Amino acid sequence: MFSNILTIILVLLLYSVSSPRDFALPPGTTLLGIAALFALFGAFTQLRFALLAARHGEQGKNPAVLAAFDRIVSTQSVACILISAIHLFGLNIKGLFVSLPIFAAIPTLGALAFIGIFLLHQCLVWFLAWPVQNLIQGAVLQSRGGFVRSNLMLGMPALVPWALFSGLADVLGLVAWPPLATAFNSVAGQVVYFLIFLAGLSILGPLLVVRFWGCRPLPPSPERSQMEILCKKTGVKYRQILLWPLFSGAMITAGVMGLVSRFRFILVTNGLLSVVTPEELNSVLAHEIGHVKHHHLWLYLGFLVGFSLLGFFVIMATPLLLGAAYLALPNSVSLTGAQFMSFGQDAGTLLFVICAFVYFRFVFGFFMRNFERQADLYALTLTGSPGPLIAVFLKIAFYMGRAVDTPNWHHFSIQQRVDFLRKSYSDPKNIVAHNKKVRKGLVAMGLAMALVAGATYSLGWSSFGDRLHFGLYERVYKAQIERLENPLPAWAALAGFYWERGMTQKALEALENTGGPSLQSAQTNLAIGVLYLESGQEEKAAKAFETALLLDPQSPEAANNLAWVLAVSQNPAIADPARALALAQKAAAKDSSAYILDTLATSYFVNGLFEDAVNAQKKALEKAIRENAPNLDHYKEQLEKFSQALSGLAQP
Question: CB–CB of 453/306 below 8 Å?
Answer without folding.
Answer: no
